[in-house]
Design goal:
71% helix, mainly alpha, 14 helices, two-stranded antiparallel sheet
């Protein structure tokens, strides 16, 4: 009787056709009722994402209660359900809730944008603020603010156009038989440096009042935002996020290399270009709403990846980490030097600078 090859019983990792692969991580397959759609769910990543969402919500509840008019947590919860007195409801819902919601939504957008570019470049430094897309969006917004004097919607459109034009220039300059991650980062850093000079020149040439407003807004701030800004952000995210998650599986395949991606039926350049457009649109959305907020898109995907112990950066976990980081940073910006409120970008730059130094030191030790 012929001996059976090792693992021929169909055990995980046996190499037998039809055997279930086991990568040493607890996963579940989620299927629709009719079985037309299925997805493999990483249990650890799902738990980490859920914990981060709860953490972001908890920070948001704390932020709703602190301030010159302090509100206890039970009263905050009653205000959110419509059961609190009118004064408390006005303070919590009308004045503070829009800022908290925007911190969570914009932080999630930055986390997803960072995940896209770090996946495409296969480099932890590949984020929109390093590559220069933040700077390009800021340039577009500055042109509208300082030269055209447009409304909020015009500034948002200017930021979107500036970010997309910058992305197009970087993409074309970095293209040579495809786009390589390292080349994209180097070209992006160079374009970012040139655009930063343009931004400084625009501010110096503007009149004092507009220059001060543009410089303050350029630090990245959630101060003074209201429900007027919440609705456009929600609508744009509702348009961008569903196609992004549909592209998420292809994004993971691209990390294996273009040859492997094409062998699996993924059109590399078309998918990469689609992801770049969505990532830049997310960055431009944040810049249009609150100014260029740095380092969230750099740190969130990598921190989430370390918590989930994933082989690739995850969109959902990166979004949850970005939301938690920006919500916590904005709370620090509000209360660290109260009653003076700092732009949240000052806090994220301080935290992100420390993170970047650690990341560079870590990468240097690997060489």
């Amino acid at each position: 009787m012929a001996g059976r090859a090792p693992g021929a019983s169909g055990a995980p990792g046996s190499g037998v056709p039809g055997a279930r692969l086991d990568f040493g991580r607890p996963t579940r397959v989620v299927r629709s009722r009719r079985g037309r759609f299925s997805a493999r769910l990483d249990v650890r990543a799902a738990v980490v994402t859920l914990v981060l969402v709860v953490l972001a919500a908890a920070v948001g509840v704390v932020a709703l209660g602190v301030g010159d008019y302090a509100v206890a947590v039970p009263d905050v919860l009653r205000a959110l359900t419509g059961e609190a007195p009118e004064v408390i409801r006005m303070v919590v819902v009308e004045w503070r809730l829009p800022r908290v919601l925007l911190a969570i939504l914009l932080g999630g957008a930055l986390g997803m944008s960072g995940a896209i570019f770090q996946s495409l470049t296969r480099n932890p430094l590949g984020s929109p603020d390093i590559i220069g897309f933040n700077t390009g969006a800021y340039t577009g917004a500055l042109v509208v603010i300082l030269l055209l004097g447009g409304s909020y919607s015009a500034v948002a459109a200017g930021a979107m156009i500036g970010g997309l034009v910058t992305a197009g220039i970087v993409y074309l300059l970095a293209y040579k038989n495809g786009v390589q991650g390292f080349r994209l980062i180097i070209v992006g850093i160079a374009i970012s440096a040139m655009l930063a000079s343009v931004n400084t020149w625009l501010i110096l040439k503007a009149d004092l009042a507009r220059a001060m407003a543009a410089a303050t807004w350029g630090a990245g701030s959630l101060n003074g935002l209201s429900w007027t800004q919440v609705l456009p952000v929600v609508l744009i995210l509702a348009v961008l996020v569903p196609p992004l998650f549909l592209l998420g599986r292809r994004m993971d395949v691209l990390e294996m290399g273009d040859d492997a991606a094409q062998a699996l039926g993924v059109r590399s350049e078309r998918t990469r270009l689609s992801l770049v457009v969505v990532g830049v649109a997310l960055t431009a959305l944040v810049t249009a709403a609150a100014g260029p907020i740095a380092f969230i898109s750099l740190a969130a995907p990598q921190l989430a990846r370390r918590l989930t112990r994933g082989a690739t950066v995850g969109l959902a976990s990166s979004a949850a980490m970005g939301a938690a980081l920006l919500a916590a940073s904005d709370l620090v910006a509000q209360r660290a030097f109260a009653p003076t409120q700092l732009p949240v970008g000052v806090v994220t730059v301080s935290i992100g600078g420390c993170y970047l130094v650690w990341l560079l030191a870590r990468e240097a030790r690997r060489q």
